[in-house]
Specification:
The protein folds into 3 domains: about 10-210, P-loop containing nucleotide triphosphate hydrolases (Rossmann fold, 3-Layer(aba) Sandwich), CATH 3.40.50; about 220-375, 3-Layer(aba) Sandwich (Rossmann fold); about 460-535, RRM (RNA recognition motif) domain (Alpha-Beta Plaits, 2-Layer Sandwich), CATH 3.30.70.330. Helices cover about 35% and strands about 15% of the residues. The N and C termini lie far apart (about 115 Å). The protein has about 625 residues and is α/β, with parallel strands linked by helices. It is elongated. The longest helix is centred in the first third of the chain and has 14 residues, at about 50-65. The strands form 4 sheets. A 7-stranded parallel β-sheet has the order 3-4-2-5-6-1-7. Helix 3 crosses helix 4 and helix 6 (about 130-140) crosses helix 8 (about 165-175).
Length: about 625
């Protein structure tokens, strides 16, 4: 390994043991001599090695020229992270980085036992890593002493402000000594970050390693368009196609996480879920299952996945589109870390294409547009993986020689190869047959590319009819009948013709070339699934169409002109009214006594009015 300048000897030995050959751009940048004692505002993308970067930069202040730390007492440095997972990840990185220097690292995070944390702080620590809320709690209880701090690091400061930790951060910074260094690491620099820096930092130096050309160099972006109702099938096909060692699927809500986990749990993938409702113990076990490769796919929300570091994460799928560029970069940054390659796939509904294009443009990402992998694409990819399997390249071992000779003696090579193929494919879930994307109407108004309405399958050749034992009474609909028939009968949608749903029966037309294979696949009994059976109908039945054409409205006869009304006689003036009527109107009404009298010509009983007090 080449000599790295401006690194403490103990840390240089730890880096050499870790196998580092070169430093990342942000690690190189913070080791500049004029930045060793300054406050720093560092802009760096997710996965760029920020933890090691500020660990290397702090070494000069913490060790002060010594090769090892002295006895641990009150903390010398405080690292603040937005989530429990990120805080624990930072602790693990600093433990190996400062191992040669005898550094003692303690953590204070929500969801853990406060008594154990208090005991660790009382025993002394050189560096404390924690989340804002738990650190404030320890400061108020007096278990975390701040008088000896030489440096404070705010890791992913923008995310801490987004999560509403501004008051906690200000409380911690106000409690720290004025003579200290403050390092702020943030992927973006919104106005609240600028205000925080002006208030609590002194002549801060800016370090920006987010370059337009290098920001996404290790991540391949794919935008795959699909119908909204087929998005889950598209996600499943993407997982099958890439067959990544570790993959993560991002959803926008906890309910979406629960739904996807239940839909994919029994389809050949070992899965874990991460959402805010899980306890710290459950989250830790889920992440450890991913790291140990006991689980292959993690389904998570944005907040739950903040700070996740999975070394073998090769694939990120956006089941729900990110709300902004920061969320897109954070999600995608879980892969393509430390020089490894990764893929970020956006599942784009037809109606969200323009919004997705704008999101990618703002993030300066050039994504490759297309459709989700089809069933044929996945089968072809499976065959490529089979032919390229390393097991086929290895020489026969001594313990295997006897059984290999016996297999060759008993069976033909083709039979052995066929058995190998069947064993390889055993347990693989069948891919979904997705509907082809509709053509795009380039001349739509306002420049919008809306899907044009797809016409009936004009290439379908008249075939044979089958009858299914479900109808409108069983809520039969083409959207679930078609995938069921394709999966059970080994056909695709292009081999299906007219579908006519009756009250208790459904008739489906299948191409003549596929009808025999269809019944061979489902068997003589014709059972498809869930008590649904199919039988062949020799001739197209006489089927009543459920919707009849509306009869035309009868022509309206010519309108007959209404006779003109006779002119009204003028209303007589008051003076013309009969005299007796005028007198009747002016005469006072008789006084009702105590409510016992009834009104003239009234059939109602007398009211029970209250008598006035004399």
């Amino acid at each position: 390994m080449p000599t790295i300048q401006n690194v403490a000897p103990a840390l240089a030995r730890a880096i050499a043991k870790r196998g580092y050959e070169t430093l990342t751009p942000v690690q190189d940048a913070v080791l500049a001599p004029h930045l060793q004692a300054a406050d720093l505002i560092v802009s760096a993308q997710t996965g760029s090695g920020k933890t090691v970067a500020f660990g290397l930069n702090l070494a000069a202040d913490l060790l002060q020229g010594q090769d090892k730390f002295g006895p641990a007492g009150s903390p010398l440095a405080l690292i603040i992270a937005p989530t429990r997972e990120l805080a624990m990840q930072v602790r693990r990185e600093l433990e190996w980085l400062y191992a040669e220097a005898g550094g003692r690292i303690a953590s204070c995070v929500g969801g853990m036992d406060t008594r154990e944390e208090r005991r660790a702080l009382n025993q002394g620590a050189h560096i404390v890593v924690g989340t804002p809320g738990r650190l404030v709690d320890h400061i108020r209880r007096g278990s975390l002493e701040m008088f000896g701090l030489r440096a404070i690091v705010l890791d992913e400061a923008d995310e801490m402000l987004n999560l509403g930790f501004r008051e906690e951060l200000e409380f911690i910074l106000d409690a720290a000594p004025e003579q200290r260094r403050t390092l702020m690491f943030s992927a973006t620099m919104p106005r609240p970050i600028e205000n925080l820096a002006q208030k609590y930092m002194h002549a801060a130096e800016r370090v920006n390693t987010v370059g337009e050309k290098k920001q996404h160099v290790d991540i391949e972006y794919r935008a795959l368009m699909t119908a909204s109702h087929e998005s889950e099938n598209a996600i499943f096909n993407v997982l099958r196609y890439y067959d990544a060692t570790n993959a993560i699927v991002f959803c926008s809500t906890r309910a979406a996480v629960t739904r996807l986990e239940s839909r994919f749990a029994n389809r050949g993938f070992s899965m874990v879920a991460l959402s805010g409702e899980l306890s710290q113990s459950a989250r830790t076990h889920a992440l450890q299952a991913m790291r140990d490769h006991r689980a292959q796919v993690c389904i998570a929300t944005d907040v739950a996945a903040r700070g996740i570091d999975l070394p073998d994460l090769e694939l990120v799928i956006h089941a729900d589109l990110p709300k902004n560029t920061e969320a897109l970069l954070h999600r995608s940054g879980r892969t393509g870390r430390a020089g490894r390659k990764g893929t970020s796939v956006l599942i784009v509904p037809y109606s969200a294409r323009r919004r997705t294009e704008r999101l990618l443009r703002e993030a300066q990402i050039n994504a490759k547009w297309g459709e989700p992998p089809s069933a044929d694409d996945i089968k072809k990819r499976d065959d490529e993986r089979l032919l390229g399997d390393e097991l086929l390249q290895e020489a026969v071992q001594g313990a295997e020689a006897s059984i290999v000779r016996e297999l060759v003696a008993r069976h033909a090579p083709e039979q052995i190869a066929a058995a190998f193929v069947r064993l390889y494919r055993k347990g693989q879930a069948a891919p979904e047959d997705l509907a082809p994307a509709p053509p795009w109407n380039e001349g739509a108004e306002r420049g919008e590319r809306r899907p044009a309405r797809r016409e009936a399958n004009s290439n379908f050749v008249s075939g044979s009819w089958i009858s299914l034992s479900v109808g409108r009474a069983h809520r039969a609909e083409p959207r679930w009948l078609i995938p069921m028939l394709c999966k059970a009968g080994g056909i695709n949608k292009r081999e299906l013709g007219t579908i006519r749903i009756q009250q208790n029966e459904t008739f489906v037309e299948i191409s003549g070339a596929s009808i025999d294979g269809f019944f061979e696949r489902i068997g003589r009994a014709g059972n498809i699934e869930k008590g649904i059976s199919a039988r062949r109908v020799d001739a197209p039945p006489q089927i009543e169409t459920p919707y009849t054409e509306r009869p035309k409205r009868a022509e309206r006869s010519e309108r007959v002109e209404r006779p003109q009304r006779a002119e009204r006689s003028e209303r007589p003036q008051r003076s013309d009214r009969p005299k007796h009527a005028e007198q009747q109107r002016r005469e006072p009404k008789p006084h009702r006594k105590g409510g016992d009298e009834r009104r003239p010509n009234s059939n109602k009983p007398a009211s029970k009015g209250k008598h006035r007090k004399k």
